[in-house]
Amino acid sequence: MTDTADKLPLAMLYERAERQPEDVYLRQPKDGHWHSFSWSQVLDQAARLVAGLYALGLEPEDKVALLSKNCAEWFICDFALQMGGFISVPIYPTAGADTVRYVLEHSESRAIITGKLDDPGIQEAGIPEGIIRIAMPYPSSLDCQHDWKTLLAHEPITLPPVPSPKQLMTIVYTSGSTGAPKGVMIDFGAFAAAAQGVVTTTALDKHDRVVSYLPLSHITERVYVLGSSLYSGMQVGFVQSLDTFISDVSHTSPTVFISVPRLWTNFRSGILNKLSQPKLDILLKIPFVSGLVKKKIRAGLGLKDARILGCGSAPVSPSLLRWYERLDMPITEAWGMTENLAYSTLNYPYRSDKVGTVGRRGVHVDIRISEQGEILCRCPGMMRGYYKQEDATQQVLQDGWLHTGDQGKLDGEGFLSITGRLKDAFKTAKGKYVLPVPIETRLAENALIEQSCVIGSGLAQPLALVQLADGVDLHHKGKIVEQLAATFEQINQQLESHQRLAGMLVMQAPWTIENDLMTPTLKIKRHLLEKKYAELDQVWPEGRVILWEEELDKAQ
After folding, report:
1. Residue 33 needs a FRET pair 20 to 30 A away by CA distance; which of 5, 263, 424, 535 works?
2. What percent of the chain has pLDDT over 90?
3. Which residues form the AMP-dependent synthetase/ligase domain (predicted)?
4. The whole model's pTM is what?
5. Are 52 and 76 in contact (CB under 8 A)?
């Protein structure tokens, strides 16, 4: 393969289809069977889809939305939209009707392509009249006027163009953790720079394999998987359903596996449900047995061939990373945001002594800390701006630097530590500011806790809302309270007086996308929890750990 420098994504697709036409690129499980797509087949289907879209009256620069879980057809649609000069607008497959309608109307999308959905009826009401509706070949797609088979019956377009680096490729809407989603405008050149940076940093090549299951509507999956597959030539497998997740991952046997803290936590809980921590500790001290246990755990997760394990999207506990490190499963933490295409810093090659940081800057990325402690980023893979929001664009893009809104610090080797979000800081009733993220990181050191949210705006002292990890045995409530109380006391001893927690409330109802307390990327909507529990301190027995909200009345 020739040098990929300065080549845009479509140029890489054309080149691979020409040089390795029969090599398998995408592998899609469907109805219990695996279907393979070669590079030449992917290009052919994309070229036919473009012709079909033109036949529907769509024109270059029209916005076309994508609403589907990950699948081979999502990739093909993305390539077709690039080839046709359309602007893609991905929508989270778990988005509610209100979000779907907002994104479609705000982006002025003329068409929407729908595919694999868990409950298509949820999104149906969000699609305005007059939008062209196209269905991927899945029974769970929405009812549409136009189907995949008919559109692909068109003759493929010839001499597909390569856009200019400054041409708008896509509008990616943020997950809306603090309000209405913003439309991040991304040019072809920026996308190419970020994807090439990932491949250069991690040395991905055509011998690698990856599973695509985190939402392609999120910039991380779009760059790290779809984008880097073009520049590396690696094979991409998909997942049929949640029920078949582990078996599908095992079938693909990825060499690269990227996940989020919540899933890594759930994996750990599943392992400890079968093998207690004390027993695991003993087995890991026996040389020969230790190796067998580690191999069995990796194989059980479908990760026996994985050479790169990644984690991002939300803060992860250093203790969780250390836990996996003992199993010879070093997890690379990375940091980025939609506005810089998720490619900013990585702890790769993995440095054990840098656990607790998010790594150092990637290729062609500059990072510095402002006088206010804010992380500033400058790189080729940066957004053009926010769609229809010039004022917001000017606030975050200043003199070529992206003002990330994250607070952090750099060590002597350039490794970055995130200390919180500027907008997450709250002022207690005592007039003191508190950064919740460092406290939440300490809470996550307790394996019983899967998620936490520290609130305190206007309260006398901060309070911790926590969710227990899957698999915690609720028959032993006394022991749970005892362990949480020990963590509570230990953390408070490390905090300044105005930061100390007044209490810890274990939530019985989960925070989910469905109840709107989490974004589609599994970030907690802190502002909604702050609002919901704004008066919690008025009924709180100071210094207590409380299991379940209904027990608050008993504790008073």
Report:
1. 263
2. 62
3. 15-387
4. 0.85
5. no
